[in-house]
TrEMBL record:
Domain MOSC stretches: 126-287
Record lineage: Bacteria, Bacillati, Actinomycetota, Actinomycetes, Micrococcales
InterPro entries the UniProt entry points to: MoCF_Sase_C (IPR005302), MOCOS_middle (IPR005303), Pyrv_Knase-like_insert_dom_sf (IPR011037)
Highest taxon in the source lineage: Bacteria
GO molecular function, one term: molybdenum ion binding
Name the record gives this protein: MOSC domain-containing protein
Pfam families per record: MOSC, MOSC_N
Originating organism: Humibacillus xanthopallidus
Length: 293
């Protein structure tokens, strides 16, 4: 059974971010409407190669240098450090094309103009696709999903949360590791390495590991899993270069089940109230599993 536990110091939202296109930079928000598959406009678009295989920043680091801003009615503005931006409307009437995502085998193509914009900047043929409103991409049971829950094009669950306290502890470990190896510590890592939708302040480092859910403002969420981390976190967003951190330090301190872990994944509790919104400064009330004794 889960019970509401109020921490000693209030936990609050310090950052909200939507990433309209998977692997591109996102947009900071003051408030975000919550839908079944997470924040409105978050990860509803993705990049694929000509045969429909997804292309992420794991393979093409340059994607992280592009940015996507959500616009009304599901549209998106794509921005690059060089050249003009482009606005793309959801291709609701386009015939679906085959794609290769876990739990989803087709999506709607954005069209030649968007494809050319992406291809020119990344230097290979690419396509932009959109997850339409009718697509039901389930959260996989092995990722903590329950019947009826659905996901955007994010990896495992609709909402990703990280903690300021946990990042401070991780940066301490990164510094310790560097000094032990005779290396000069670099600049502290930011949350952008982990691409969270929500950043919270308050509570102890890694307290979020034990959440079974949370109420953010007035919106309830259920925890699906702690978030396993991949090499994408080692890519410097400014330079596109890869390094060893934070995976090296997480491997020393946060390894179990053959993976490294940082942050948690949440999904909205269904049904969602009409007009559900979370905002900067909202209080976050964790739900913890009660001790059966």
């Amino acid at each position: 059974m889960a019970g509401r536990v109020t921490p000693a110091a209030p936990v609050r939202v310090t950052s909200l971010t939507a990433y309209p296109v998977k692997s591109l930079g996102g947009a900071w928000l003051a408030a975000a409407e919550v839908e079944e598959r997470g924040l409105r406009g978050d990860r509803r678009w993705a990049v694929v190669d000509p045969d429909g295989t997804k292309v992420t920043a794991r393979e093409e680091h340059a994607l992280l240098g592009l940015r996507a801003k959500p616009l009304p009615d599901g549209a998106v503005r794509l921005l690059s450090p060089e050249g003009d931006p482009i606005e793309v409307a959801p291709p609701r009437d386009a015939a679906p094309v085959a794609v290769r995502f876990s739990g989803q085998d087709e999506a709607r193509p954005a069209g030649a103009e968007a494809d050319a914009w992406l291809s020119e900047r990344i230097g290979r043929p690419l396509r932009l696709v959109w997850q339409d409103d009718e697509t039901h991409r389930p959260i996989r049971p092995e990722m903590g999903g329950l019947a009826g829950e659905r996901n955007s094009l994010s990896d495992a669950a609709p909402l990703h949360v990280t903690s300021e306290a946990s990042l401070r502890r991780l940066n301490d470990w990164v510094t310790e590791t560097a000094l032990e190896r005779g290396e000069q510590p670099g600049e502290p890592l930011g949350h952008d390495r982990f691409r969270p939708n929500v950043v919270v302040e308050g509570g102890e480092p890694f307290a979020e590991d034990s959440w079974v859910g949370a109420r953010i403002g007035d919106v309830p969420f259920r925890a699906t899993m702690v978030c396993d981390r991949c090499v994408m976190t080692t890519i410097d967003r400014a330079t596109g270069e890869s390094a060893k951190e934070p995976i090296r330090s997480l491997a020393r301190h946060r390894t179990w089940a053959g993976a490294t872990w940082f942050g948690i994944r949440l999904t909205p509790v269904l049904p969602i109230a009409s007009g559900a919104v979370i905002r900067l400064g909202d209080e976050v009330v964790p739900l913890l599993a009660q001790d059966p004794g």
